[in-house]
Amino acid sequence: MVTLRMLIGLALGILLAAFARQVRAQENGAEVVAEIGGDKLTRAELGQKQAAKLLQARYQYYAAEREALDQLIEEQLLETEASRKHLTVDQLLQREVTSQVKDPTELQLEVFYEAMHTNEPFAAVREKIVATLRQQRLAKARDAFIQSLRSRANVRIALTPPEAEVALDNAPRRGPEDAPVLIVEFADYECPYCQQIHPELKKLEQEYAGKVALAFKDFPLPMHFNDHQLELAQLKEHARTLKLDAASFDQCLDAGEQAAGVRKDFAQARRLGLTGTPAFFVNGHFLSGAVSYSTLREVVEQQLAASVPSRTVRERSIGQGHYRSAAHRSLPQLSACEKPQSLASGGEEWAEGSLCAWDRPGPQAIHRP
Fold first, then answer.
1. 85 and 137 together in one domain
2. 183 phi/psi in degrees, rounded to 5
3. Is the separation of the CB atoms in 212 and 205 below 8 Å?
4. What total number of domains does the chain contain?
5. Is residue 58 a contact partner of residue 272, using CB atoms and an 8 Å limit?
6. Of 44, 263, 326, 336, which is most buried, counting CB atoms within 10 Å of its CB?
7. CB-hemisphere CA count at 13 Å for 176?
């Protein structure tokens, strides 16, 4: 019997040790996923060389995981608060949420009705309007209550977005060279969602002054050229309005001196599998679309708390210096400018002369209102 127990214990020890080695290998990307004639391919190589096929899928899985995690956190917060007050969760929500919501006034109902542009008489749709507004107010009150519970509980999220290696090259950058967090943004000057998130980026830079740097990369999407806001004549007019050196600007623009840099950024975006703008890499961690300020802030906090450098952002030259990195519930349905699938392999129809002006201003002119 003793011998049998010893053998079982030894077997369990071996299994646990093997499992621990596998976990460590997965964590550092050294897990072998295939062998070809004795040559081994690791998970890290798979992620790096096949990023275009994998990054978006991993991000979708992350988004689903994050939504499920938020739901789990919410349930636990409600259960904890209900237990503290000796109530059921339903009783808690009735007291703190439902009972606090007031029905809309007749004037509010009439205003909502006018905005509907319906041919049905007000009396016929009144109860539907009441139900709709009540549900909206209940949802808003519930979210506010959950947020208050989260704030008091000091919830910290450890789940991180997927990673990809991003070469900085000579990307224009704003912020200290030794900032522990680098945010690389792929953007299009005419993208409305890039413009929408610009104030959030400014706010983030102010809150984490000295800790966050922002690098800019061009990812122009063909669909934005239809309004002709970036035609050569208009760009030259903008330069004169801004009182730039008109002669130097025109020469740069006409010669397409910066076109190669823009094309290089575009090619990198394609290799990474990006399909729209804006797209962010926070120390290599991928976020897609005009994500909320709280989402950006959360990932920045995660990276600031990390004790080891991120392995996905390598030391690259930027201008005259060098940079070495340290270390939501739900995303909006329409939060990014997406490149049409039919143009996924195109993009050669742009006027080369117009590429210069997009790249030259750098991150200070990423967005315009």
1. yes
2. -105, 120
3. yes
4. 2
5. no
6. 336
7. 13
Within 10 angstroms of residue 296's Cβ, the number of other Cβ atoms is: 21
Q: What is the pLDDT of residues 138-196, one digit of tens each?
A: 999 999 999 999 999 988 999 999 999 899 888 999 999 999 999 999 999 888 999 99
| 340 prior amide bond cis, ω within 30 | no
Task: Give 73's contacts (C-beta < 8 A, 6+ positions apart).
Answer: 150, 155
CA 145 from chain center: how many Å?
26
CATH number for the domain harbouring residue 335: 3.40.30.10
Query: Do residue 112 and residue 261 come from a single domain?
Result: no
Domain that holds residue 142: 52-153
Strands across the sheet containing 173-174: 173-174, 212-218, 181-187, 279-282, 285-288
Reported pTM: 0.70
CB atoms within 10 A of CB 13: 10
Q: Do 199 and 149 lie in a common domain?
A: no
Q: How far apart are CA 169 and CA 184, in angstroms?
A: 11
Q: Same structural domain for residues 127 and 198?
A: no
Establish if 56 belongs to a structural domain: yes
Based on the fold, state whether residues 178 and 71 are members of the same structural domain: no
User: Residues 274, 218: contact at Cβ < 8 Å?
Assistant: no
